[in-house]
Amino acid sequence: MQSNWPQTLWIVRHGQSAGNLARDAAEAGGLALIDLAWRDIDVPLSELGVAQSVALGDWFAKLPAGEQPEVILCSTYLRARETARLVAEGSRLSDTVAKLRVDERLREKEFGILDRLTKLGIRQKHPELNEQRVHVGKFYFRPPGGESWCDVILRLRSLLEMVTREYADRRVLVVAHQVTVNCMRYLLEQMDEQKILEIDRQGDVPNCAVTSYRAERRQDEDAVMRLDLVNFLAPLREAATPVTSAPDQPAAPKP
After folding, report:
1. Which of 36, 110, 176, 238 could pair with 106 as two cysteines, CB 3.0-4.6 Å apart?
2. Residue 78's domain is classified under what CATH number?
3. pLDDT digits (tens, 9 = 90+) for 223-243
4. How many helices (H) and strands (E) does the chain have?
5. Does 124 map to a domain?
6. How many CB atoms lie within 10 A of CB 22?
7. Which of 74, 96, 92, 69 is nearest to 84 (CA)?
8. Are residues 63 and 97 in contact, defined by beta-carbon separation less than 8 angstroms?
9. Residue 249 placed within a domain
10. What is the pTM of this model?
11. CB-CB neighbours of 175 under 10 Å
12. Separation CA 41–CA 39 (nearest Å)
C-alpha cells in the first residue's frame, strides 16, 4: 500500500556561511552590530562551508543508486542554494535523477528589527524587546517585522502538505537553516514547545549535519515518519572537514 510520506526524508542545515563567521567575530569583539555587507538572503557560504557541502555530496554519492535523493528542496537563501547545488554536483545527481526545487517556505526565520544585532546590541538598542523575548521565549516571541518559531512552523505545515501530495514514496532531501531544521523536527516528531526547546538548549544544529526519517507502516495504521539519524556528522568527519555549529543570528536567551 502506498504511503503519503516520502520513502526517505533528509533534512540538512546549510554549510558554514560568511554570516556565521561575521557573527562570531562580532560576539567575540563585544560589538553591537554584526558587520555584513549582504542582506541575510544573499549571505554566501564561507570557504569552509563550501568544503562541508562538497563532503556531504561525496557521502550521498556513496549511497546505492536506489537510496540516493530523487528530489532536492532548498531555501531561497543563497547559502542554502549553494549548499544544495554543491551536494547535487558532488553526489553526481543530475537533473534527470534529482530535481532541485527552491521553495521560499524553507527560508530562515526572519529577525525583523533585530536583524544583524548581537545579543549585546539587542540589549542596548531594544531593552524593552529584550525583556519581552526573555519573558515570552523564542517559541512565541515575534520581533517587529520578524517571525516567531510558530510563524516558521505555520509555513512548514504548508510545505509538508505539498511534500506528502507531490513526493509520496520518493526520496527527498531538504536543505535549509537551523531554525527550519528544528521546526521540521517539531512537526514530524509531534513535539510540544518544551520538548523542542530542550533540544535547542542542548546545542546548535551543526552546519551540513543530516537528520533523516524513513516512512514506516505499522500493521493497518497510517504510515509514520520514523527518526533515523539526528545531526549525523560522519560525512564531514570522513572527509576530515571541520564541524561548525554557530547560529546564523544571535540566539535568544535560553528559557
Report:
1. 176
2. 3.40.50.1240
3. 889 999 999 999 999 999 999
4. 9, 6
5. yes
6. 21
7. 74
8. no
9. no
10. 0.93
11. 33
12. 5
